[in-house]
Amino acid sequence: FNRIEKKYPNKVDAMLAAQGRVATNKTKSKTPVGKTKKLKSSWRMKKPKQYGKTRVVRTQSEAPHAHLVEDGHEIISGGSSRANGRKLNRVGRAVKGVKSGGRVEGKKMLESTFRSLESSFNKSAENLLSDLTREVEL
Question: In this model, does residue 43 exceed pLDDT 70?
Answer without folding.
Answer: yes
